[in-house]
Amino acid sequence: MARASRTNVNSYDRFVSTYDRRRLIELKRAFDEARFGADRTLNLRASLPTPDEAVRRANAWLRERQTSGADEVLIITGRGNGSDGGFSVVRDAVEKALRRLKRQGVVHLFVEHSPGSFVATLAPVRRLWESARRTAPPRSDIPGGATLGGLDPETATLLRALAERSLDALGVEASESFVQREMATQFAALIRGIPAGKDRETRLRDAIRRALAADDNRTR
Question: Can you give the three-state secondary structure of the chain, one letter per residue?
C-alpha cells in the first residue's frame, strides 16, 4: 500500500512538473509576442529551413528591419531537439551570421534569449557606411543594378545632405569627388536592406530621413 502511494505521488509530481513547464513556456511566448510583435520577430523554426536558407533569410530580414528603423528584434531558430545529436545546425549558422553582421554594421549586439532564440539590437544605419569604409565592398555588390544616376531628384538631394554631413563629421573637405564617393557608399549600404518593389525609392528616402534625424539627435 505504501509503495502504491509513493508511485501515485511520483506520478503526480511528474504531471505537475510537466504542467508547470508548459505554462512557463506559454507565458514566455506571450511575453515575447507582447515585447516584439510580429514585425520584430523572425521565426525560422516554423519553416524548418536549411542552414544556408536560414542565413539568407536572417541576413535580408535584419538589414530590412535596420533600414526600417527597428531597434530590438527576436530571431527564433529552434534548439535542435529533433536534430541528430540534439544540435541545431540552423542555430549555429545564424549565430555565425549575427557575428558577421555585427562586423558589417547591421547588428550592434546580440544575446541568447533562450536555447532556441536570439535577441539582436540593430545598429544605427550610419554604422553601415562606417563599416563599408573599412571593408570597401565593390560597387557590383549593389543589388538589383541600382545606380545613383537613376535616383529621383528628391532622393539625390537627401542622399547628398547625408553624405555631406558624414564627411563633415569626419573633418573631410566636401569636394564634389568626395561627396559623390560618400553618396555611392551610403547608397550601396542602404539599398541592400530595401527589397525590390514599386515603393523601393520611397522607402530609401524614408531611411535617409531617419538617418538624418538620428544624426540630429546624436549631435544635439
Answer: CHHHHHHHHHHHHHHHHHHHHHHHHHHHHHHHHHHHCHHHEEECHHHCCCHHHHHHHHHHHHHHHHHCCCCEEEEECCCCCCCHHHCCHHHHHHHHHHHHHHHCCCEEEEEEEECCEEEEEECCCHHHHHHHHHHCCCHHHCHHHCCHHHCCHHHHHHHHHHHHHHHHHHCCCCCHHHHHHHHHHHHHHHHCCCCCCCCHHHHHHHHHHHHHHHHHHHHC
